[in-house]
Amino acid sequence: KDFWERYMESMDILATRPERTVCRLTLLRGENMAGPAEWAQVLQRARPNFIEVTGVTMAGLFQKTGLGTMNMPTHLEVKDFAQQLCEEMPGYQLACEHEHSNSALIAS
After folding, report:
1. DSSP letter, residue 33
2. Which helix H or strand E contains 65, and what residues bound it?
3. CA distances from 76 to 12, 43, 103 (A)
4. For the segment 4-29, what is each residue's pLDDT rounded down to a tens digit?
5. What is the pTM of this model?
6. What share of the chain is helix, strand, coil (3-state, %, to 5)?
């Protein structure tokens, strides 16, 4: 019931860490890809050194949650989302991508 408050608190804590930090976004088409600007606000709160953006892959959980292959973004969709995040986050840029892993890495 207090997930979001605890999640945001963890972002604040992450921002205070002296070590290099990373945040990971697992994208699901039709679920959490509509608002890169909103994600950018959350991520800027944590100020991570890296942001890994990856597309969801099939898992046993899919059947239980009603998700399916239509929720699996393509690599191009993942890369486009990562680039949109970079546009919203000054000082961050796309560092690399890996099509086979369906992921992109953003670095500050």
Report:
1. -
2. helix 61-65
3. 31, 22, 10
4. 999 999 999 999 999 999 999 999 99
5. 0.90
6. 45, 20, 35
